[in-house]
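Much of what follows relies on a compact textual record of a protein's fold. Each token is a code from a learned vocabulary of local backbone shapes. The record below shows the convention in full.
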Amino acid sequence: MNPHYRKEIDGLRAIAVFSVVFFHAGFSFFKGGFIGVDVFFVISGYLITNIILKEIILKKFSIKKFYERRARRILPALFLVLFTTIPLAVIFLTRSELSSFFKSLVATSIFLSNIFFWKEAPYFNSGAELKPLLHTWSLSIEEQFYIFFPIALLLLWRLKKDFIIYFFIIIFVASLLLAEYSSKIFPNANFYFIFTRAWELAMGAIIAYYFVHRKKKDMFSKNAREILSFFGLTAIVFSIFFYSEQSRFPGFQALIPTMGSAFILIFADKNTLIGKFLSNKFLVGIGLISYSFYLWHQPLFAFAKSYIVNIDFLNKFFIIFLALILSFISWKFVEKNFRNKKIITSKKIFFWGFVSTFSFVIFGLSTNYYFDGKSRGGSEAELAKLLSKNIAVESTVMDERLFIKQRIIYENYKPETLVIGSSRIMQISNQISRNRILNLGVSGASIEDHITLLEMSLQKFNPETVIIGLDPWLFNKFNYQGRWKSLKKEYRKSLIKIDGKNQIKFNLSESSETTPSKWEFFLENIYKFINIKQLSLVPKELENNEKKLILRDGSLLYPKNTNNKLTAKIINYSMGKYEFSKENYKVYDKFLKNLLNHHKKKVVIFLTPFEPSSYELTIEEKPIFLEIEKMFIDLARKNSIKVIGSFNPSKNNCKNNEFFDNLHPTKSCTSKVLSELY
């Protein structure tokens, strides 16, 4: 046993990993369990820096050996989990979900999954929990940090060793300030980026520097260590139970759990009560397998949720137990063996690390091409065909823009009213309207979506009325809604059309079937043989559905157990930073005039209400919302367009219980707005 081994650190690892696992399991008491990752970052920064500094002092440090240790520690268990998740993904996921999975497989293999998930899945988005490799973002953060960190330490030691502590402090302060600023302006990027996470690793590095250079072993009294270590554990536990997705992370609020971790690392030794508690056999045992436990739990929960959706209490614990069993096996037979240099030599670990990484990248890229939504095997076309023949289909992970394009292609009835906008208007349906509705709303719709989807629709359909949902972010220069780019060719054509060159046509013919390659033929047969998700895309009933459904008219039906109990929060969706775009306004004004003058349509502007308590909080902090609504109304009046609804829910008498969340009203609230029209 390493004489410097500290059992209490493994105990702290156990607390951290359990908090993350219980959070991903969906236990409401662990709503702040995501802070376990922040705890891991501090521990990692401490342990790695401690090793590097001691080896540098003893003149034993080697960059090659450092990366070898990281490879032995990280790669074997990670690659085992990646290899195992591939067949499970083919069994449980739809084609579009598989496309996303194989992209994440590539990103994870080269430690860029934090960048991938930043672009694809906000961490607290409901769809993110269905991503089998979502949790690997934190591994990418660590490995990105450790690419340059040891080199910088070695250079500083040789040039000016006394500056090392200032180097740590500079990283800590600069990164923390950036994180706090970004938590308000760019919350999604802030959560995933190395630059806003580096301070947590630097905090651990500062602690390591303190231990390596302290002159007196016991600088604090026994009572002081007892109190401060107890305070540290209390801070972590408090964060787990009282933080939530509304907490701004990793800004100043993250100081509570990270400082708690720091206090435990500094003060909780084997002689303190907290140290003894964290050193008990159970917690130490979990701490030893915590890396494997962290790797296994997310894929198991993601696959279970993609198929079962609502996992009951007992099944959650069964999945956790299964993850623990798999974790022990991979720790015992994979992690330990690959750390043993007598069993696996340095040449072997580098060789197999390179071969495995290369294999995952090539396999992921080639397989993703087949399952991608733009290829012949995409599920967008399949879902559009199913919806044209059935009352509803399951709302799966997919490219919504491509799905709407396919809906336009395969739709076979003549709507009297077209609905265009974001997910906030996707409760407009035939159930609450006397007209035949075709709802073509997409999540986070931007002006590019509005223009493109409507111009494409009007090439095929001839509705009397067009209802357009306007959202606060529509003319925001910093809304960062880039999902429209999957239809960028169609958007360019749409701009030409609204400039008066209406002879341009969209290609709305059914996708032609091409002869599949041998690889595609193999994939298709494997997929059709073992995939079970394809059998459940069409629901058997609507009343007791447990999944989000897209109805025949394009509106959304939420699951029966959707929780309507809301906590008021500032509405920041695509509004973290606001700057009015004159260019977007001019383009949109021209678009509206084209609808009225060329297409000769009756246009109605729909302002969707926000949840009451959140709306009140928002206009207190961001009165710009009031100005934006007035601007929309003025734009409509300028073009003699009728406006219904308001961002202010009280104007339509929409109550707190008439919202699924802070952004999305239920059908009852939406019908109150539509009553102004009918």
